[in-house]
Amino acid sequence: MEQALCATSRCHIMCHITSLMNWQGNGEYDMAVIQTPKVLPVKEVISMRPQDREHYIEKIMLKILEMNPRGVTIPEIASRTGFYRDTVAKHLDKLVATREGYRVVRGNVSVYYKNGQVVHATDVKDASSPNRTYSFYQLENDDGRFVYVQEKELDEFRAVTVKGGIMVDARYALQFLKEFQDFLLKEEGD
Amino acid sequence: MSVSEIERDRYARAATITLGEKRIDSPHFLTRISNPDELRSLEQLVMEGSPRVQGCVVRLFDAKNVLGSSIADMTQTRVDALSKYVGSRFREFLDKVTVVIDPATEYLFYEHHLSKWVNDRALPRLVTDYARARINKKERVDSYEYDNWKIANHTLFWNKLSHDAASRNRLIGEVFDLELSYRSSLLLPPVPVIRTSRDLEIAIQFNEIAQAISAGRNTECAGYFIMQKGVLDDDGIIDTLFRYLSNSSQRMVVLKFKYLDLVKAGSVRQLIAYRNILQQISFLKETFRDRAYMVLENGYQVFPSATVAFDLVSTHMTGFDKDSEFGHGEYGSWFDPELMVHMPFKDMKEIYENNQNRLPCAHDECADVDVNTIDANSWNTSRRKHYVLTMGDYMTMIANAIKTKRTDLAIDKLINSDISRLKKLIPRS
């Protein structure tokens, strides 16, 4: 009930922490079990080629974020998957950088979430490069509605890689567009 | 990948399979092509908009010869008008067809094509080294000793890979990279040909790891199993395989039954075993409706396979999937759409004359063929196109029968053919 009433990010994270940590009688606390997909043994993952390994771990991280809408922390993922914390952190940060996920920091704890539910999506080809596409998403999460522009690129093997992205609060999207237009016109004027 | 069922009639179904940006209506025939001439013939059929000709299968060791130069042309910027035209035409062709690159790793066991592994530098080093060692050994020892060594060496090769995670994972990754470079719409992992239960264990292990390795690639990774026809009636192996298939999460499963010819006399046990396999796949397809099944190098079994179990079926463009030791005749045999078997060219003249100087076939492609004057190359091109078009007709026929809930018509079709014994593969109810 307490969780359902939470609206702000700050409150959201507090709820997360209280729900994940189960106090034990001896004064220590245990992490709640998070949902994870089937993960290969670490030995197998280490033996993959670096590029395959990176893609694999990234996909696992994204899947974990999807499966845990209440958020996950680095130690939770590390303990469940067997991956090093640094590895987990690196991949989660990459997902945050490309706006596929987002992070809420509270003190020493960072909780990671999947970046909302896609309400609407459109792809726009980049006229300057046949291998680049911009995907426009309307996302909805606990913090509201957002316009998410994702830059995707086809690599040499035609695999789509997310190269970057920006998120704009839907309420300010038009204002953002106007600023962007003004910037372009000013650039042209110069 | 997604599968949406359109119609179902008891064990059979018609569905739309989406592989990335490509859509295929099942049942569908994907022809295997093995040289640039066959590619050109297929390209013509696709560009003419022939129904149910939307895909092809190319073996990995053939891919460089078949697709390599066209892909290179396409990816290079040319300034002269002619090559630009060729490039754009091939691009259009690729946009229309679903290409499946088959790693065909059973040829690390079988002798045919062994030399092709050595000649392509793009192929994984591990495989080329293995093939080279085999060829060298064959030259140095007598055939009896070589045969024993070959089996032991092949077993050792896959067992070593099974235990050496780094080499195995690198091999899978490299094969996937190659398949994608040839524009494959489906990733098939390298797997050993299943002759024993240990081979099956290794194949399952490779398939599992391949699923993980395919994660970063935007292409569906299928479960792939190549079986020697001898294991068809090995209940232990088949049970283990189907237990795995029913518990696995793969949405596409590709099977290959090497050198399976159920039309041949003396294959009764294999016929019954294959019938059971078709029924098990049909059951899986009914249980997991979002999954699709494909069979490669299926020869004369294509028609019943597509009727009962497999969404996608494939044979070579000639209809023959055997590896012949001997050279082929100058004029190849023609596939009779009614009798459903190949007719030798020498019989074609008589058939042609008895049919008022026309081939007994309704395709526009075949209408202008004059059996008496045609040269061997043109004949061989025509009969290949005719085979693909006929298979397309069969697939349309099956899809229509499913839509009208008259799948049993397929049994009638087989009864009136020269491969009538295959009617046993189709359940009556």
Task: Spell out the key features of this protein.
heterodimer; A: 190 residues; alpha+beta; Arc Repressor Mutant, subunit A; Nuclear Transport Factor 2, Chain: A; 2 domains; four-stranded antiparallel beta sheet; two-stranded antiparallel ribbon; 41% helix; globular; disordered N terminus; B: 429 residues; alpha/beta; TIM Barrel; six-stranded parallel beta sheet; three-stranded antiparallel beta sheet; 15 helices; 16 strands
Task: Give a brief description.
The complex is a heterodimer of chains A (190) and B (429). Chain A has 7 helices and 8 strands.
Instruction: Give the CATH architecture of chain B.
Output: Alpha-Beta Barrel
What's the SSE pattern of chain A?
Answer: HHEEHHHHEEEEEEH
Q: Beta-sheet strand percentage of chain A?
A: 25-35%
Per CATH, the superfamily of chain B is Queuine tRNA-ribosyltransferase-like
Give me the count of strands of chain A.
Answer: 8
Poorly predicted sequence stretches spanning 5 or more consecutive residues of chain A: 1-30
Q: Architecture of the largest domain in chain A in CATH?
A: Orthogonal Bundle
Q: Kindly identify the CATH topology of the largest domain in chain A.
A: Arc Repressor Mutant, subunit A
Mean pLDDT of chain A: 78
Distance between the termini of chain A: 57 Å
Number of domains of chain B: 1
Using the coordinates above, name the CATH class of the largest domain in chain A.
Answer: Mainly Alpha
The first-to-last residue Cα distance of chain B is 31 Å
